[in-house]
Amino acid sequence: MPLGTLDRAPPPFFRQGPSALSKLAVFSALALFLMVADVRFQIIQPLRVALGVVLYPAQWLAMQPARLAGATGDYFISLSTAQTDKEAAYKRLGLQSLKANQVDQLLLENQRLRKLLELRSRVQSSGIAAQVIYDAADPFTRKVVVDKGALQQVKVGSPVLDEAGVIGQVTRVYPLVSEVTLITDSDHAMPVLNTRTGARGVAFGDGGGHADALELRYMASNADVAVGDQLTTSGVDGVYPPGLPVARVEKVDRRVDAVFARIYCVPLALVSGASHVLILDPITPLIPPRPAADGAADGKADSKKEARP
Hints:
Layout: H1 20-41, H2 45-117, E1 127-135, E2 143-146, E3 159-161, E4 166-173, E5 178-182, E6 189-194, E7 200-205, E8 214-217, E9 230-233, E10 245-253, E11 262-267, E12 276-280, H3 294-307
Antiparallel strand pairs: 1-2, 1-12, 2-5, 3-4, 3-12, 4-5, 6-7, 6-9, 7-8, 8-11, 9-10, 10-11
C-alpha cells in the first residue's frame, strides 16, 4: 500500500480531545467563577449544607471513641478529686470541731477569770459606715478621703476598719469629709500584739521599698517572731480597741551585727483597695484616767496635814 494513501490522523482509539493546557484554562476559569459566585451570591451554600447533613452521622461515629475516652478519663479524675476533697473536708471538720471545743472552753475560763479578778471587759465602741471617695493629693503619703465628716460626728483619732481588719486612723476632719492616714503610711505607728506569743511591739508604715507593707520595729534579733504570726491591736495606746486584726508577718531578717531584727508584715485589710469602711468612735473617753503621781499625792497629803490646827 502506498504510503500516501495512509491517514495521517491518529486512530480513534488514541483520540485525547482538547489539549491539557486547554483543560487547565477551562477548569481554572470555572473554579474562579465558582469561588467568586459563592462569595457574592452564596450559590454553594445549599450544597455545603446538604453535605454537612449527609456527613454528620459519619463524623459523629468517628468522634465517639475520642469522646468515650475523654469521658472515662474525666470520670476517674473527678472521682479521685472528689475522694481527696472528701478526705480534706473530714480533716477540716475535725480540726474545726476541736477548735470549737477549745473556743468554748477558753470563753468559759475567760469569763470565770474576769469574774474572779474583777477585770474590766473589753471596750465596745460604736461606729458609722463610710465610703472612700478618692486618694489624697500627696503621692508620697498613704492617705484616703472618706465621705463622712464633722457633721456626722467623726472625730480625729477614730480607728478605721474594713471587713478584714484595721486600715488606718482619722487624722483630719472637715465638715463633710475626713482624711484617713493608712497604716502603711511612713508616719503612722501603732502598738500591736503577737497573738502566738503575746509579745507587744510597734508596727510602722514601711515607706521604703516594700509598698503597702508594715515593719515591726525595735524587736530584738533573738525575739520569738516567725513568718505567719498574726498581729492584732494591743489596745495600750488608747486609740484602737484591742483584738482588731492588723497584719501577718511575711519576712524576718535577723542579722548578727544588728541589735534589732528587720520584720516585714503584710496588712490583713485591703488597705489600697478598700471602698467601704467603718469608722469607730475613739476609745480614749472610755478609758479611766491615769492615777495621780505619787509625788503629787504626797504633796497634797502634807499640805492637808499642815492645814490642820
